[in-house]
Amino acid sequence: MRLLILGGTQFLGRAIAAHACALGHDITCAARGVAGKVPDRARFIPVDRDTPDGLAPLAGEAFDAVVDVSRHPGQVRRAVAALKHRVEHWTFVSTVTVYADNRTTGQRAINAPLRAPTAPEIEHSTEETYGSAKVACEQAIGESAFICRPGLIVGPEDPTGRFTYWPMRLDRGGEVLVPGTPDDAVQLIDVRDLAQWIVHAAQTRLTGYFDGIGPSYTRGQFLADCAEAVGSSCTFTWVDRAFLESHDIKRWSGPRSLPMWLPLPEFAGFNTRDTSPARASGLTLRTISETARDTLLWTRTAGGPVTGLTADEEKAALEAWHASRSHN
Fold first, then answer.
1. What's the pTM?
2. Most-buried pick from 3, 107, 152, 315 (CB within 10 A)?
3. Is residue 45 pLDDT above 90, yes or no?
């Protein structure tokens, strides 16, 4: 298979290229080339997708399938106009952030309500318009494509440092500050599993709308599996939303955050999507334990980024938590 990846130099795009190369496919990665290098055996063609003729370097090329990971509607519209009529299969990597309803549990990609798309004149997405921009991208592509909507993508080479926080923190041991309750839901996918499924979809010409995530786990099970995987001896101190917010501990990602935490009930549906259609369509998943071990090893050897509470911030928060309990 001659596969064109619009991207291929960082995280998911690079993982797709690496897996496809390992299977012996003919892989071309087209990107600016500033985010990183393409895997060995992949061919790189520099393009600038923000210019009207930015895909001109691909004009004489022939491909069987295309994978696009862009978040910018202008880039996607130009790619569809230039390439879609020339290939048999099109994959667009979207996001679960396209959904308008994050409260309702058990939703499926096929019928969950979407956000309104960004306006036709909007070329680029921002952090605030990310979900709406991806809706606009999906609409530009049309029906005859594989629309993959991943949730939280984790594993080696993760540039966000969100999931990475937990194997790194658990590896330190001791008392660990964790958000919510042990029964809260967590949902994620290893980047390598997602990449394998995307290549499988191109090979089998899979089309339709799918959520590219694994099944839901409880946060308690997630942490226990990660702790066992890294050989950690630690205890968990569960703290509630009111305490976290009153002590300026952020949600989801970034400095002074507890990564992968979202407040309930507003986000009860975000981590409980019904992803059985994806598994029925060829998505296979490794264990959280394997992902945690591999992510920890990668972070140690490559100096991968980690985001979340610092050790001092966590210590101060734990002290404040215990002090608040002793006064009750």
1. 0.97
2. 3
3. yes
